[in-house]
Amino acid sequence: MHVLRKVLTATAAAVVAVVGSVAATGTASAAAGCRVDYTVASQWQGGFQANVQVTNLGDPVTGWDLRFSFGAGQVVSQLWNGVVTQSGAAVSVRNAPYNASLPGNGSASFGFTGTSTGSNPVPTTFTLNGVTCTGRPVTPTSTPSTSPTSTPTQSPRPTTTPSPTPTTGPVTVGARQLVADMGAGWNLGNQLEANIDGVPSETAWGNPVVTGALLDRVKAAGFRTVRIPVSYLAKIGPAPSHTVDPAWLARIQEVVDLAYDRGLHVIINMHGDGYKSVGGAWLICDAANQDQIRDKYRAVWQQVATRFQGYGGRLIFESMNENFDGQYGAPTQPCYSNINAYNQIFVDTVRRTGGTNTSRWLLVPGWNTNIDYTTGGYGFVIPTDQHRSSAIPANEQRLMISAHYYDPWDFTGTESGAITQWGPNATDRARTSTWGQQDFMDAQLKKMHDAFVVKGYPVFIGEYGSIDKTAFDASNDRYRADYARTLVATAKKYGAATAYWDNGHNGQYGFALFDRRTATVTEQGIIDAIMGR
Questions:
Q1: What gap in Å lies between CA 289 and CA 282, rounded to an integer?
Q2: 463 is catalytic
Q3: What is the pLDDT of residue 61?
């Protein structure tokens, strides 16, 4: 783990998880009804974050207005996936343009941050389009007076369990087409893997809550894949069930949906749970209690995979991130054997949850996602895939191999102004690293091609990028763009997909391409380079 690109700012407040669930409903239609689930996902001194999901149990609506009142002076400060107005305690949340329609049994979600001066009780009453929420369908007792008496009234929806949303069939896209479809990728870094003392919170490292407006901007910039790092840490309950906090899983799903519902490919992984430098980390390959670690790992992935089993092939799971024993020398045994075992548990567990997971593309890394230690005979073993769908042709794979690329680190990550230029266009050799130039990059990515792509396993360079050193060299952005352009082009040449590492930090030593608070582009030149423009 390179601490710089993972953590640049952190709030000092401790985050305490608070969960409150309210069953309530309402809708405006002939057959009305809905359920509202309101959860306080995190809470700190003077503030909190809440997630709200409204499920329509009645006839379809084409626009919605959810209203409720706070009971202790709370104030909404920022809301995403909707438009909020507040007058005193009364709050009204109207739909955003992209989530206005709610079919029968359909859901919409929004979230917000708020301020509180003392207690933070959950609202107890909700109305949707003027109808009080009750948690069940409400059928009018008579035909509305506005309807002609000759017009037959519509039969109410049955009160039995609603039909499940149809799931997609097996994933049929092959390796080459997958890489082409994924296009250029982008990392939503320092968000769902952020934490304070081992308690995950998406705002813990200084970024704002993730919004649909940000994902709109990412898509408009040309990115077609979003990688979403996730940490679980203290959100995991005790053995034997190791239950993941439902509110945390719900927020993960909301963020996934923000990207997935926009037609993007989405990758979610287990990110910080294997870092020795993170408080509460437990997926430690050289720890003594491997049986307990494997049980916990299996339980978490079983819950995550089950939650997403109905999503189509644009959703990809990644087993872990940069897992190793903390030293940057050659891999050690049995630590590498344990990493291989985690990957195998991951594949088996996901496949056994059924649904689209039996054919979904799954992404696995080697030692520290290092190219040399994944390809060079140091012990990496590709998992077997014996539980995959029989619909997958025998000559096709559904496993991808993950690697990261930050060479040379003195250009891409070292926090100093010494090395600010890269590549054949460099004008000052004193500011250019003595290694890791274009020929080295080509040779490294060719190793991945020769080891995996030729065997049908697509490669994903899940992180790459370079920090902003324009404070030391005004021309630095030109070389950052050259680096990104060359990496993406070289990866494409060797059949690999890519995702730029963005940690949300702009300015000196930042990786960001966007301002997440305003959903605007901050590094158009680097984006143009990534897109080949």
A1: 10
A2: yes
A3: 85
Backbone angles phi, psi at 466, to 5 degrees: -150, 150
Query: What confidence score (pLDDT) does residue 14 get?
Result: 30
For 263-398, list the strands marked E by DSSP: 265-270, 315-318, 362-365
User: Is 322 known to be catalytic?
Assistant: yes
How many CB atoms sit inside 10 A of residue 118's CB?
9
Instruction: Exactly one of 322, 396, 415, 523 is catalytic; name it.
Output: 322
Per-residue pLDDT tens over the stretch 8-33: 333 333 322 223 333 333 333 335 78
Residues 524 and 217: their CA atoms lie apart, in Å, by 12
CA distance 330 to 7: 26
| Closest of 246, 217, 216, 220 to residue 232, by C-alpha | 246
In this prediction, residue 50 has a pLDDT band, given cuts at 50, 70 and 90, of confident
What's the pLDDT at 13? 32
pLDDT value at 87 more than 90 = no
Contact 463, 406 (CB under 8 A): yes
Which token pair is 373? Answer: 């230690």
Q: Which 3-state string (H, E, C) describes 142-208? A: CCCCCCCCCCCCCCCCCCCCCCCCCCCCCCCCCHHHHHHHHCEEEECCCCCCCEECCEECCCCCCCC
Which tokens in the block code for residue 233?
Answer: 């840490």
Query: Confidence band (pLDDT; 50, 70, 90) for 137?
Result: low
Cis peptide before 334 (omega within 30 of 0): yes
The answer to whether 481 and 469 have CB atoms below 8 angstroms apart is no
Contact predicate 200/231, CB 8 Å: yes
Is 496's pLDDT higher than 50?
A: yes
Tell me how crowded residue 195 is: count the other CB atoms within 10 A of its CB: 27
Closest CA to 411 of 398, 423, 403: 423
Q: Do 27 and 95 touch, CB atoms closer than 8 A?
A: no
The pLDDT, as a whole number, for residue 136 is 66
Closest of 2, 36, 185, 182 to residue 110, by C-alpha? 36
Distance CA 163, CA 405 (A): 46
Residue type, 86: Q
Adjacent-strand bridge partners of 365: 402
CA-to-CA distance for 136 and 138, rounded, in angstroms? 6
Catalytic residue (choose from 193, 318, 463, 523): 463
How many C-beta neighbours within 10 Å does residue 463 have? 26
108 vs 102: CA distance, rounded Å: 7
Tokens of 183: 């296009």
Which residue in 137, 61, 130, 135 sits closest to 102, CA to CA? 61
Please answer whether residues 216 and 262 qualify as being in contact, where contact means their C-beta atoms are separated by less than 8 angstroms.
yes
* Chain centre to alpha carbon of residue 435: 34
Length, in residues, of the chain: 533
* Joined tokens for residue 440: 């080295």
